Amino acid sequence: MAFVRSAWRILVGIKDALVLLFLLLFFGLLYAALSYTPAPSTSVSQGALLLDLEGVVVEQPQSVNPLSALPGSAPQMKEFRLRDIVTALEAAKSDGNVKAVVLNLDGFMGGGQVALSRIGKALDGVRAARKPVLVYATTYSSDGYQLAAHGSEVWLNDFGQVFLAGPGGSRMYYKGLIDKLGVTTHVYRVGTYKSFVEPFIRTDQSPEAKQADQALAGALWQTWQDDVAKARPRAKLAAYAGDPLGVVRASGGNLQQAALRAGLVDKLGGEEAFGARVAAIAGTASDKKPGGFATIDFARYVKAKTPANNGRIGVLTVAGNIVDGEAGPGSAAGDTISDLLYTALAEKSLKALVVRVDSPGGSVLASEKIRQAIVAAKARGLPVVVSMGDVAASGGYWVSTPASRIFAEPGTITGSIGVFAILPSLEGTLAKIGVTTDGVKTTPLSGEPDLAGGVSPEFDAIAQSGVEAVYSRFVGLVAKARGRTPAQVDTIAQGRVWDGGTARQIGLVDQFGGLEDAIAEAAKLAKVDPEDAKPYYIEKGPDKFEQLIESWMSNDTQEAALPRDWLGRQAWMQRQWALQAVADAKGLITGGAMRAACLECSGYGAPRVAGPQEEKSFLTMVAGALW
User: Fold this and answer.
1) d(C-alpha 233, C-alpha 262), whole Å
2) Is 194 tagged catalytic?
3) Is 382 helix (H, G, I), strand (E, B) or coil?
4) How crowded is residue 35: how many other Cβ atoms within 10 Å of its Cβ?
5) Which one of 63, 195, 331, 394 is the catalytic residue?
6) Residues with pLDDT less than 70, the chain
7) Which pLDDT does position 582 carry in this prediction?
């Protein structure tokens, strides 16, 4: 009876805790809803279109985490959809109300090279329409400066710096820790360059992986330099980036003057001086505050200028890690994306399909589920064209194989055609604390994989055979899609990652071009009149509750505390190693599933934290592992 009473007390305690948590959540959200008041409109009919990019640029923003709206919660970093920025800039070119475009990059934390290049192209269009583009920041990183170079007037804070680090860096390797813990890492993989598993089985990078990484980083750095040099020919990039210490010393240690003398910026000054300059072009703000200028609100402008989503060219977005099951935007969940496509095929009169891929891959099963849905669209007679964004590697390339034509950009990261699985067993760890295992078997696979007592050689051999079979299927899909033999594809596969320029040379992509080019090509293949070649974005919009939270958060003055000075900014960016460690731990624990994922891809593009769905799945996974 004592045991029953104790168990009952535990159950009651759990129930009370859950009720308390629900009440806290309910009243927190109620407070958020009641305290929400629309921000007074500072927008005017005419002025400067303000792009205050405090956050990151992504292909598809994640859902707003409702918990971040509660008082005292850590604010969620804002994500700006690439499509929205391009829409606003394209509209601003011919809009008489827009007197100038202003980029405030003070809180800009980055984006992928392809996305930033597309924004730069749109900024060039604004300038070609004889409208000034003014840019301001305290610190310009490589990503920020890729945008700033397209401005007609670039301002740097009096205490700022242009910090051009370029791609590259280090990552953590855990073999030493794993050995000390007594964990045995069983790795099943195919691909000389499939380096995703290396942090768990090595103390450093393999020569093959380092060679491939160096080639990728070098190609992306050259693409970045070409883009910036074309946009701002007077910038002395080679000297500034190649010998930053020498440049600073030549300026007497003055970081701001170093950037000015190198032609990277045009003006030095604070926000008030910059605002006064904008006001002289676009008009002063109604509140007459120092540094204020007449502003056209970006969010409202995008909403007003976004065309109706009723075209005949379907655009399916595969963005984020490819995962099994269902998930919100920003994660490429197999069930969610395939269901969206099947529904669109049933309910809409689509003439062609464009698949926009911005994913480093993930689950093989989810990738195949998405691919099968795309094949179903092709079986209905719809031409399929793929548009690759910043990353379309591993599983991201798997889902691209049904395409009749693949578009990419020089800065796209693609390839990584390889497969792996990781399975940790704890017999060594348990032995350290005196725990052993024993039992009986009826077949060689009874109780396998035995994560407590050790995985048998028979299971290891079968698992490796399974990975090899999936790799053969992957290579076969690519060979069929690209008109090659499996042997020919194998020479450029093996898990190696390629930049878009090289990928075009070796036949993994067909031509350079962005999403608009892919839509035009799909319309051409479907024999749709170019004037009717409008997109229909196959995606699920936010529900009423998400819209409420997002609207309330967008007007909340408390935003993520992002550093402004260059040293704090770099320290913040380097803090990503902690998030990477968590992701690596998740990869080790969940690696038993066959995966087509890209390790190198995590070092490029916008920094992102786990979304609500990924956090939930990770916590569920840990709880399951502990249970």
Assistant:
1) 11
2) yes
3) coil
4) 10
5) 394
6) 1-13, 15-44, 64-75, 542-593, 603, 605-627
7) 66
